[in-house]
Each structure stands twice: as structure tokens, then as C-alpha cells.
Amino acid sequence: MPEIEHAAAAASSEEETALFGKYELGRLLGCGAFAKVYYARNVKTGQSVAVKIINKKKLAGTSLAGNVKREISIMSKLHHPHIVRLYEVLATKTKIFFVIELVRGGELFAKISKGRFSEDLSRRYFHQLISAIGYCHSRGVFHRDLKPENLLIDENGSLKVSDFGLSAVREQIRPDGLLHTLCGTPAYVAPEILAKRGYDGAKVDVWSCGVVLFVLAAGYLPFNDPNLMVMYRKIYKGEFRCPRWMSQELRRFLSKLLDTNPETRITVDAMTRDPWFKKGYKEIKFHEEDYGGGFGSKGVRSEKVVDLNAFDIISFSSGLDLSGLFQQMDGGERVVLQGSPEKVVELVEEVAVAAGLAVRWKKECGVELEGANVNFGIGVEVYRLTAEMVVIEVNRRGCDVVAFRDVWENKLKPKLLCSSSIATTSHHELPELQVAGD
């Protein structure tokens, strides 16, 4: 392919040849302090992808290590036509490789820097942005760094949200119901973040979407000043002026998005009833499985099974220390045995029913077992390791250790062992595995 170029000068020996025998690296697309992004091609399928390469040594001792872990976790769960897809994550001793969707059109920022968009085009992109962000919020994910630099345009002119490194998930919300981490890009940050009193992740995303929409339609920022503190005061007070060419409907809509009071700021649901937003709006319908998801739009259980890649395997192994990025399991066990994921889940369900536990299907291949005791539950996830072997992760939910041990040690584990002809190992004793490129 014409885009594949010799990358030896730009990549290390780990990256010169086909990465893990799967991806042929090409030209450098961009780079930052901790990562480089290359064009790449899947040598088996010919599919073009982007590979983001992160240097683990540079991450050591920085707060960004947590961002990388969070980005992997979040992107693997998001499957939407207007969100950049994460295909897989690979790793060696020194690097982490994100294999992601190649979005050929570049950043929205590059396009808007050439001049403002028409209201119709601004609205089209905004519809796509809100579809993606509403989807994220429904799954407990808050982006927190929405700006034109993190919005990409594909070859069909469709918008794709990227860069979830500063995202938050519902589990980070404190008992007061708010997030407290200060983050975001100054010109796009919501006033409640500046107040340092805690904030609602969904509402700060709506504010940032409002700033993005203003930039699309005006061609410049609503809040801007060479002096950062002056700019922050403008944001805090909501001081901005719409250009004369904006329609009254758009001005009114922007005032709802850029409302300094998060309690009265418009919500994603309410946007669909706004006159400006409604014009030409069609709900974006899709099936998550078409974008890598485990559930369809109706939440029907999927038969999709997760195959472990090299990154997953080495994160289980003590030979390659990823403790800075991935914590050990707490209150659980990991076992390897022979069999199929489907059979394992079947056996787990049998044991659960016999023990009087409620069974709730999870995304991908796994189940949640819930007892009548609110302090007790078990999470079971199954991954295919090879054609004949699986890894089972069992985690305790709640604080009832006695009930957990009774179900796991006396009922579930013996049943699984009887069904397998291979010995098990705890998560501390997984064998060392060689990974290509090390």
C-alpha cells in the first residue's frame, strides 16, 4: 500500500517488523511527550489502523499511568458509530500499543481553523457529538476533555470522539454525588470545575459541547484572553457575545448550554426538544455488536467471547511488572482450566440456581451471582486463552467473606474442576509467557 513507509528510523527494534506478527507499521501520524501514533496495516486482513505507542518508562512515577489504565478500560466498553474504536491492546516490557480505528479526515480543529462552519454543518456535527456523549453518559462515562482537537472526522465526513485519557467513570463519584478531580482544557472547562466544589460529570461535558458548538459556528472561542485568570473570570461569570451572523435560535440554544448554573443547564435529553437542535435531527440508531459491543440495542445477552491477547496475558504474569497500571485482584481468584467459555458459564449458572443465588448476565461472557444477603455477591468472567483453555476470574462482591468462600470453595470451584482435565493455578501462579517483541 502506498501509505506504508519504512519506519525503522522512527521506531525502535520492537516496532521495525510486523508488530506481534500482526501489524505492519508505517508513517508517523503524530507524537506527544509520552506517546507516538503510527499508521499501520493488519498483515492478515489488510485493514488500515492507527497504533498509539506509549513508553511505559516515561509514564513511571507520573499521574498519567492511571489515565492509560482508565482509557483502556473505558474505550473497551464503548461501542458507538461516533466514538473511535479500540480494537485491541498489546504490550512488551517497555511499551503499550493501542490498536485503534484509523480516522483519515484528521482533527475537527484543523478544519475549523480554516474558517467557521455554516449553522447547518455545525448542527450536523453537534447532533453526532451529542449522540456519542449521551451514549457515554448512559454507561456512566464522562469525557471531561471535549474540544475540537479530540474530535476527528472520518473519510465520510462523520465525527468521531477520541482521547478518553481524562475520562471519569461512575465509580469515581464521591458520596456527595460529585466528581472532584480538576481537569480539562482551560478554554473549554466548566465554571463549576473552577469553583473547586465538586461537579456533575455529565453537566461539565454539556458545557464543553456548548463551547465546541460556539467555535464551530463562530470560528473563535466564546471565552478567551491572553491572561488565564481573566479568561477564567469570563467563564465563571458566563461572559460571552455571539457574532451578528448567528441566528436567534442558535443564540438561545447556546445560552442554555453555557448556563453557568449546572442545575439549570440544559441536559442531553432536553436538547432534543430545542427548536434549533430539532431541525434535521434524526436519532442515530445502531447495534453495538457492529462496533465491537457485547449487547445489542435492546440489551439482549450476547454470545460474544473475549479472546485474551498478549497484553491481557502479560498483565496476569508476574514476569512483566505492570503493577503501576494494573492492580491485583482483591477478594478473588483467577484459574486456568480446559473447556469452552460457554460451558463454564453454563456450569456456573447450574451451581448458582442450586445454591439459591440470582443470576444476572453480564456484558461479554460472564455472570453476576447475587445472594439474598445484600453484602454478598460473586462476579464471574470467562476469557478464551487458547482454542481449548479458558481463564476464569472470580471476584467477591460485598463484604461477606464467609458466604463467598462457601459458594466458591465448596460449590463452584469443585464443579469447575470436575469438568476440567487440567490443573488450576491461582492468579499469583500463572506461568511465564513469552510475548513477541520482548
Automatic annotation (TrEMBL):
User: Can you supply a Gene Ontology BP term from the record?
Assistant: signal transduction
The yes or no answer to whether the keyword Manganese is present is yes
Its UniProt entry gives the catalysed reaction(s) as:
L-seryl-[protein] + ATP = O-phospho-L-seryl-[protein] + ADP + H(+); L-threonyl-[protein] + ATP = O-phospho-L-threonyl-[protein] + ADP + H(+)
Q: Does the keyword Zinc apply?
A: no
Q: Which CDD domains match?
A: CIPK_C
Domain Protein kinase residues, every copy: 23-277
Q: Which Pfam families match?
A: NAF, Pkinase
List the Gene Ontology MF annotations in alphabetical order. Answer: ATP binding; protein serine kinase activity; protein serine/threonine kinase activity
Entry cofactors: Mn(2+)
What is this protein's record name?
A: non-specific serine/threonine protein kinase
Using the record's annotation, list all stretches that form the NAF domain.
303-327
Family in the record: Belongs to the protein kinase superfamily. CAMK Ser/Thr protein kinase family. SNF1 subfamily.
The source's domain of life comes to Eukaryota
Query: Which PROSITE patterns does its entry note?
Result: NAF (PS50816), PROTEIN_KINASE_ATP (PS00107), PROTEIN_KINASE_DOM (PS50011), PROTEIN_KINASE_ST (PS00108)
Binding of ATP occurs at 52
InterPro entries according to UniProt: Kinase-like_dom_sf, NAF/FISL_domain, NAF_dom, Prot_kinase_dom, Protein_kinase_ATP_BS, Ser/Thr_kinase_AS
Q: Its Enzyme Commission number?
A: 2.7.11.1
Q: Which UniProt keywords apply?
A: ATP-binding, Kinase, Manganese, Nucleotide-binding, Serine/threonine-protein kinase, Transferase
